[in-house]
Amino acid sequence: MRGLFSLPLKGTIRGLTGGEIMNSLDIVIIFIVAISIIFGVKRGLVKESFTLFALILGMVIASRSYIDGAKILGKLIHNPNVANIASFVAIFLIVAILLTFIGILLKKLIRLVQLGWIDRLGGAAFGFIRSAIIVGVFLVLITKYPILGWDKWAKGAKTAPFFLHLIESLQKLIQ
Questions:
Q1: Which of 92, 53, 97 has the alpha carbon at shortest distance from 69?
Q2: Is 26 a member of any domain?
């Protein structure tokens, strides 16, 4: 029995006229995008965005203040490396949990005023954007650093140009 990554994804789906429509990588990409959109709809924009915001802000605050926390923890933990790690994790978790709780309250408020459909629609958009970034980064990596012939799949995929262009545009926007 072979694992998922050892499958020879050489198959294609052909159109009514016999022309190639999609290759196997296209199917994987569409599956990833669809799953991400479904999760986005289920969780809603508020929960999705607050989760992402909680992770980012948790990382930023923890990375800027873990040393102060480690000084306090140093009285209990005598190994400075362990104190640094414990401080970082504790600050990260406190911020992430607090923001997640705020997101839950906001989501309940949105349901209360009957705007849940907007939350779900926004969640679908968030899910699409998230999957587009993940797929785009993956495609950039396999085309720039070809391994196992994956670059050929990307070049033959009908959906790949959209995602590669998206990542290229994001890179220009960031720089």
A1: 92
A2: no
**Amino acid residing at 5:** F
- Chain mean position to CA 47: 14
List Cβ neighbours of 100 (8 Å cut-off, separation of 6 or more).
50, 51, 54
For 21, how many CA atoms within 13 A lie in the half-sphere containing its CB?
7
Residue 9 falls within a domain, yes or no?
A: no
Residue 81 lies in a domain: yes
Phi, psi of 17 (to 5 degrees): -90, 0
Whether residue 49 is found in the same domain as residue 109: yes
Can you give the residue range of the structural domain that contains 161?
121-175
For residue range 124-156, list pLDDT tens digits in order.
999 998 899 888 888 888 787 777 777 787 888
Model confidence, pTM: 0.66
